[in-house]
Design goal:
The complex is a heterodimer of chains A (110) and B (117). Chain A has no helices and 11 strands. By secondary structure, chain A is mainly beta. Helix content of chain B is 0%, strand content 54%. The chains are: A mainly beta (110), B mainly beta (117).
């Protein structure tokens, strides 16, 4: 049973659009991560969150601990943002392990 | 910068061959992980290690074994490769979560794409 749910599974946007990707999880976490994977490329960590909000350039990540939900926002999207975005969590009860969503495939059209 | 290095980006092997995938990290991380990534299935944990010589099975350990003789190196072994082990294999590392410190960020290698014929 996948305890990390991501939506949408696929997303196509026009360049310049504001994009939101959602992640929800089942039980208490010690941290939530947003990861990015470009086609044919490795996975890089964008954010690690345990509360509140973080911003890096055009990327913003938020987390609501009470609602067990996180969002990744991309402002003024660009074709180079086209990638798979993956949510990963570390649950308090499982310590060392990470659990992953199935990813959101984003395509930004010029 | 943390670096996780996987030994081979692309490998082609024949059914029955023994396959070694090597992973080295340079930031003294306690935790190391091997995942496989398949379309529609996301990342699935094969094995992880939280210390030298320590290992735990993940979700799909069948057909795989691991070795961690040194803290920086975590090897994945396919004793007898089969066609259903054709996949992208990703190694990752992190610090251990600790009650006094934030949970560790996860760092990935570039991946090893294995094709078994």
């Amino acid at each position: 049973k996948n305890e990390v749910e991501q939506s949408p599974q696929n997303l196509t946007a026009q360049e310049g659009e504001f994009i939101t990707i959602n992640c929800s999880y089942s039980v208490g976490i010690s941290a939530l991560h947003w990861l990015q994977q470009h086609p044919g490329g490795g996975i890089v960590s964008l954010f690690m969150l345990s509360s509140g909000k973080k911003k890096h350039g055009r990327l913003i990540a938020t987390i609501n601990i009470q609602e067990k939900h996180s969002s990744l926002h991309i402002t003024a999207s660009h074709p180079r943002d086209s990638a798979v975005y993956i949510c990963a969590v570390r649950f308090v009860r499982t310590g060392n392990q990470f659990y992953f969503g199935t990813g959101t495939s984003l395509t930004v059209i010029p | 910068d943390v670096k996780v290095t996987q030994s081979s980006r692309y490998l082609v092997k024949r059914t029955g061959e023994k396959v070694f995938l090597e992973c080295v990290q340079d930031m003294d991380h306690e935790n190391m992980f091997w995942y496989r990534q398949d379309p529609g299935l996301g990342l699935r944990l094969i094995y992880f290690s939280y210390d030298v010589k320590m290992k735990e099975k993940g979700d799909i350990p069948e057909g795989y074994s691991v070795s961690r003789e040194k803290k920086e190196r975590f090897s994945l072994i396919l004793e007898s490769a089969s066609t259903n082990q054709t996949s992208m294999y990703l190694c990752a590392s992190s610090l251990s979560p600790d009650s006094d410190l934030p949970a560790g960020e996860l760092f990935f290698g570039e991946g090893s794409r294995l094709t078994v014929l």
